[in-house]
Write a structure and sequence with these properties.
32% strand; D-Maltodextrin-Binding Protein, domain 2; 15 strands; single chain; 282 residues; Alpha-Beta Plaits; alpha/beta; binds adenosine monophosphate
């Protein structure tokens, strides 16, 4: 084990900014202006290596870095058995099969015998083999969506998030091979400080999905209000100077907040505050 743990992260592309935001939200202090290769964290024994997103699995697999952040699709494509230590809930996309809008295929099974162009040839080949659908995989490193128009393939397998690239290229999805998001991967031997990094990043991800809600409530309405707050176990109930009132604090899902506010008020809650949660360790 080297003195400093090494975490490989994307040096450009769509995972770069959300990855830097995650590390900063976890409280790591580092300088990312010189993103050429490595940045030393000022407040934790960690070196951040900036490398190409598609090289990260290899860096971690070969032990050049103990941990890395990349897309689940790239780990699947590599076929390497790295440990996924956390799902990071950004960079969400799916690997879809698509055909020209006027093609007859409606489902993945209809691609039997088709030539399928993709920049994920290894995963695509594995997927269709495992599903007993014989296809010819045509490996391409880019511009996959133009392959059918150029006569290179009958269908493609490519990453989609909004679907607009497919639409612009006259393609229609016929099914999903894989759902992907950014993940934290680790070398199987990584422990000690690596576990601390996992805990910190997981705490940020968990905190982002929750809100801390505080309110005042008539004591008489307490059981109704408690029933509205699933949260993390039971809410905290604190006495107030007025004996007929209490303060109620609870952790709720960020998505639930809008639905909850009206119901809490209707139940008698007042002075409702909703606060972000920086880190949450359940
Ligand atoms: P980059 O090519 O460096 O921008 O990073 C591409 C990675 O971002 C992919 O391997 C995916 O893990 C992720 N990603 C998320 N949404 C998309 C999308 N719509 N198209 C391509 N990649 C995506």
């Amino acid at each position: 084990m080297t003195a400093h743990l090494r975490l490989a992260v994307p040096n450009k592309g769509r995972l770069l900014e959300p990855t830097l935001a995650l590390l900063r939200d976890a409280g790591l202090v580092f300088d990312a202006r010189e993103r050429s290769l490595v940045s030393h964290c000022e407040n934790f024994p960690l070196d951040i290596l900036f490398v190409r997103t598609e090289d990260i699995v290899e860096f971690v697999g070969d032990g050049v870095a103990e941990m890395g952040i990349t897309g689940a699709n790239l780990l699947a494509e590599s076929g390497r058995g790295l440990e996924v230590r956390a799902s990071l809930h950004y960079g969400r996309c799916h690997l879809d099969a698509a055909v020209p809008v006027d093609a007859p295929a409606q489902r993945l099974e209809d691609l039997s015998g088709a030539r399928v162009a993709t920049s994920h040839p290894s995963y695509t080949g594995r997927f269709f083999r495992e599903h007993g659908i014989p296809v010819d995989v045509v490996p391409l490193s880019g511009a996959v969506e133009v392959a059918p128009r150029m006569g290179l393939a009958d269908a493609i397998v490519d990453l989609v998030s909004t679907g607009s690239t497919m639409l612009v290229n006259g393609l229609r999805s016929v099914g999903t091979l894989l759902s992907s998001e950014a993940i934290l991967v680790a070398n199987p031997g990584a422990d000690g400080p690596a576990t601390e990094v996992v805990t910190m990043l997981q705490a940020v991800v968990d905190g982002r999905e929750r809100r801390y809600v505080m309110m005042n409530a008539p004591l008489a309405a307490l059981s109704e209000i408690e029933a509205l707050l699933p949260g993390l176990g039971s809410p905290s109930v604190l006495p107030l100077a007025r004996p007929d009132m209490v303060a109620v604090h609870a952790v709720v899902g960020a998505d639930e907040v809008w639905g909850l506010l009206g119901r809490l008020r209707a139940a008698g809650a007042s002075g409702i505050l909703v606060l972000p949660i920086e880190l949450l360790v359940p």
